[in-house]
């Protein structure tokens, strides 16, 4: 066969990946648009080890070759993730596109990756040398730059289960379907006994990677909702100061305005 | 409704539904060559030299030196080169073509060709552009007196952007050298005889040495009016040189970047108002024509003739210019210059009303033209103007008048609503004396011995239903079942020149010729005999002759009318606008097939909504169009609108078949005014919106301005 | 390794070209399935929609290697079915076909919508067909036809 390898199991796939200059191919929806016919593909879309959705106490584990459509049908996948992937392109793309592909493409516009940032997900990768589990924000080193060695394959996404049911999510595309994100925003805020225990905000499609600012998030953690309400303007201003947006077809100014508007709305929706 | 309006199964339904229709891209290419164009990288440059890599056996490079005749494509004028001359005038201008048996290899060769350029300063700014392609001026009344006596004078500038036709089938054309030296060109097109004339000139041969056939065509919307003539000339020259069939089918990127699209515009309006009436308008219209003239003359004519909208403006001065910039030549797109000026005048009327503190719909109604009024060009509205009834119909469907008042109250909160209203006419058929003096349409019916009848005309089925509606007319007059009458895609070797498939004219003008021809055939009918009848265009005798040099007279015999309301909900956090409802009443006279006409109305209306909202395209400081993929140039999907609420108002045109008028364009033309007015209302009406498309980004900017 | 084997419209077939070739091109050029149209080659228009293992996909975004062992159905295969007859009838009734270029993809998308949900609402039809662009119709006729097919074809889906 020309330009393709068909491993039957994960070990075989990792072995091939360690020996050949190949590009892992799962759903193809990004790779085929790149149109590089001289590559050799490692077809991993049917590998059983990459096709599972399972859970343990801490995580929902979504295999890299699970498609968005499959995730939408799974009772295990949290609503936050389902809402984000339900807005990806259109049914035909969701039928083929995968979680691993969304990550491997390295784009900050990837809708599932936004949720992974917002929830503090981890990415499990494997090679013949063994497995590694990497927090998603470290997996992305920069625009189209991943912490993924040439012999490594994305195995699964470890999506934290707790505290993500009460999410805030909004995607801004150019239209209602077949739309690449111009801005995406995901937020989580947990309150226990009147005190904020968790505050995270992730911004997609605004920079080389999805953006999160842990130090800015820390401004609200440990405060009461009332204190936070008093600080909300300062918090939004701190994001305004920090966020540096990359240029795009749609202006950086617009996208930044929308980010801050959504952040403000998120806080307001929590009474802050 | 007339019984001819009853819908039938379209004649081309089966082959299209089952996927059996053969578009030019579906032709078996065994033994044929593919062509790939070498295009300019610069907006303006001297081409000093083209250095070819060594060409493999079977591959050929074609350029202007291979053109047997004149290296100019005949459109309205002859300035568009087949292949670039010494200088290139826009990014993407074809310099040459590589032909060969493998498409990928052709592209690879094109990528390896080195072109030496001497870059020249391009003109990219419509405001600064100083090379005037076309310059028209007309008026009536006493402008100075009207402005001097005005209660108030308004002064505003409006802007519209590109719109790409975005037909689903990209441009494609194939040339096949036939025995005896004849050249056969077929492909995706609207106007077989335009292509015929252009190819003849380029190949330097007579009418019988070339024949053109329209293949099944996957949408046109004006985009396949003039552009196919250019591509046809290129493939014809290539096939002539290679002496083999050559086909070029564009990629979507090529099509979006390098084919004609709607003219961006800049319209400056000055209006005088006295006692609640608009008494004068002084209008300056600029259209960005791109690098060559193509159809800019006629697009501009139509645009300036309706620049005062549907309003009775007794004192009028209109100045229109089409200007050259070093960008892709713009051209025909459904509406043909009218959407730009209608947008401007509808927004202006809205803004004046707001300033006067009156309801804009009422203000528009008070200034509306009626039967017997003079047109902008001192012709006459010979027939009833049905717009007041159509407004009532739209109101009935949408609750427009109540909502319009309700939404004008101050709104707070994240989501805010607005409803906008606009109305317009679309002049049916060619502008001015074009039908009489230039087109001179001829149509024939061929009755075969077995009693079947073939329609012989040059108008192309491009989705608008001509293969069904022409036979319906003929079958109706001949009392034949529809199966007995058929209409194929035209081939210039078989059909007379009944004119191009443009200007909403085919059904109204050629349909009427066919109706008359059918009556003639009915009267002459002899069973078992082969018979041909012919009819020629005659101008209706009520018309006031139109003089283009003065822009005086009846520019059109009659008008199609449109009234539409669009209701939106704006998300003030993101600027996104959701369309809650889109309502319209269109008068295109008698529908020759209800479903077909409704399909035209709904499809055109949605294109207008796209134009107003999300269809943004622009070029950068190098003159490159960046919105060159379907992920960057966005057209509406199924989920961007609810079911469009369209109804037909029938006010017949006595000289159209059974009272039918031009239908194709009218549904697009008015949508931008209604949409942007709706956004303006949702935003609180404090900022005057002056451009289309009006995107989510524009909304956020406008909100910031309001706050400031 | 041997050729890529898959089922096309019910028949086993094999392909000896590159695994990176596009399914769209191979369907059209090697297997003469010309109903499958190329509108953009980027998964942004749906004109090349086919069914792969029962699911709607854009054939422009599938590499041949990924079809190994799969079941592909194009309109050439689907048009022989009873379900097609129902869609054919309602598309004709509503004059839902204009230029025809998006039609094969639309038909496959309609089949996919109804196969998953035999009695969809208008919103569900619109969502299910949202990857298929049509520039001619404004979508009313197509959406209404699919809703009518759901009624007409009771029991077939």
TrEMBL record, chain A:
Domain FAD-binding PCMH-type: 1-164
MF annotations from Gene Ontology: FAD binding; oxidoreductase activity
Tagged with keyword Nucleus: no
Keyword Oxidoreductase: yes
Keywords from the UniProt entry: FAD, Flavoprotein, Oxidoreductase
Domain of life the protein comes from: Bacteria
InterPro entries linked: CO_DH_flav_C, CO_DH_flav_C_dom_sf, Diverse_Substr_Oxidored, FAD-bd_PCMH, FAD-bd_PCMH-like_sf, FAD-bd_PCMH_sub1, FAD-bd_PCMH_sub2, Mopterin_DH_FAD-bd
SUPFAM superfamilies for this protein: CO dehydrogenase flavoprotein C-terminal domain-like, FAD-binding/transporter-associated domain-like
Classification via Pfam families: CO_deh_flav_C, FAD_binding_5
PANTHER family xrefs: XANTHINE DEHYDROGENASE SUBUNIT C-RELATED (PTHR42659)
Descriptive protein name: CO or xanthine dehydrogenase, FAD-binding subunit
UniProtKB/TrEMBL annotation, chain B:
Source species, domain of life: Bacteria
Gene3D superfamilies per the UniProt record, alphabetical: Aldehyde oxidase/xanthine dehydrogenase, a/b hammerhead (3.90.1170.50), Aldehyde oxidase/xanthine dehydrogenase, molybdopterin binding domain (3.30.365.10)
Record SUPFAM superfamilies: CO dehydrogenase molybdoprotein N-domain-like, Molybdenum cofactor-binding domain
Natural source organism: Parafannyhessea umbonata
Listed name of the protein: CO or xanthine dehydrogenase, Mo-binding subunit
Protein's UniProt keywords contain Oxidoreductase: yes
Xref: InterPro entries: Ald_Oxase/Xan_DH_a/b (IPR000674), Ald_Oxase/Xan_DH_a/b_sf (IPR036856), Ald_Oxase/xanthine_DH-like (IPR016208), AldOxase/xan_DH_MoCoBD1 (IPR008274), AldOxase/xan_DH_MoCoBD2 (IPR046867), AldOxase/xan_DH_Mopterin-bd_sf (IPR037165)
Domain Aldehyde oxidase/xanthine dehydrogenase a/b hammerhead: 18-121
Molecular function terms, GO-annotated: iron ion binding; oxidoreductase activity
Keyword Oxidoreductase: yes
Keywords: Molybdenum, Oxidoreductase
One Pfam family it belongs to: MoCoBD_1
UniProtKB/TrEMBL annotation, chain C:
One Pfam family it belongs to: Fer2_2
Record-annotated 2Fe-2S ferredoxin-type domain positions: 2-78
Keywords per UniProt: 2Fe-2S, Iron, Iron-sulfur, Metal-binding, Oxidoreductase
InterPro entries (alphabetical): 2Fe-2S-bd (IPR002888), 2Fe-2S-bd_dom_sf (IPR036884), 2Fe-2S_ferredoxin-like_sf (IPR036010), 2Fe-2S_ferredoxin-type (IPR001041), 2Fe2S_fd_BS (IPR006058), Beta-grasp_dom_sf (IPR012675), Diverse_Oxidoreductases (IPR051452)
GO MF annotation: an example: 2 iron, 2 sulfur cluster binding
Lineage top rank: taxon: Bacteria
PANTHER family hit by this protein: OXIDOREDUCTASE WITH IRON-SULFUR SUBUNIT, XANTHINE DEHYDROGENASE IRON-SULFUR-BINDING SUBUNIT XDHC-RELATED
Protein name as it appears in the record: Carbon-monoxide dehydrogenase small subunit
